[in-house]
Amino acid sequence: MSAAASGRRGRPAAASPGAALALARARFIAGERVDVQAIARELGLARATMHRWFGTREALLGEVLADLAERRLEAIRREVPGGGGPALLECFDRFNRELAANPGLAALLSQEQERALRILTSSGGVVQPRVVAAIQRLIEQEVDGGRFAPRVTPATLAYAIVRLAEAFLYNDAIVGLRGDSERLREVEAALLGVPI
């Protein structure tokens, strides 16, 4: 029975912030523009509901990017054998190479360069702090397991790793991804104390 037939008004039961985020994530992964109005329409929502849930389009994009980054970092760590600095380096290298090859990220950077860089690299946004926290968790797992002894605190190391990746992967002078993964791996290896 439809909402109209039952006399009830409002959004469909399946429409939720999670459903909206999943739809935005699918569009981003496909390299499509994340359009708040289109997502609201597809879920049978008012645009005001999307605004209440996520605020701005930038905030929604930030949630999508932060969520994807956290998921990928966790998945990559599960795939990488071993531990300590070498395992961390392998995780970060795989993650960086995925970023450099990601069609959704390339599309976002080419279509909305300033906005994309602001969403990705602002310490006041959601992406950078959450990626730093995810990397810090990976480092702390290795420290807690006795497999890694960083020369600086895990928080400082995680922040440095993220800022380095931003510098080597994103280029604010030319639209798109720089994707300098090889040199980034060398610098991350030095920070982690891993010979390459």
Task: Report the portion of residues in β strands.
Answer: under 5%
Question: Helix coverage percent of residues?
Answer: over 70%
Distance between the termini: 63 Å
Detail the poorly predicted runs: 1-8, 173-177
The H/E string reads HHHHHHHHHHH
Number of helical segments with 4 or more residues: 11
Mean pLDDT: 89
Compute the gyration radius: what is it? 19 Å
Structural class: mainly alpha
Largest sheet: none
- Backbone shape: elongated
Give a structural overview.
It is a single chain. The chain is mainly alpha-helical and 196 residues long. Helix 2 crosses helix 3, helix 7 packs across helix 8 and helix 10 runs antiparallel to helix 11. It is 70% helix and 0% strand.
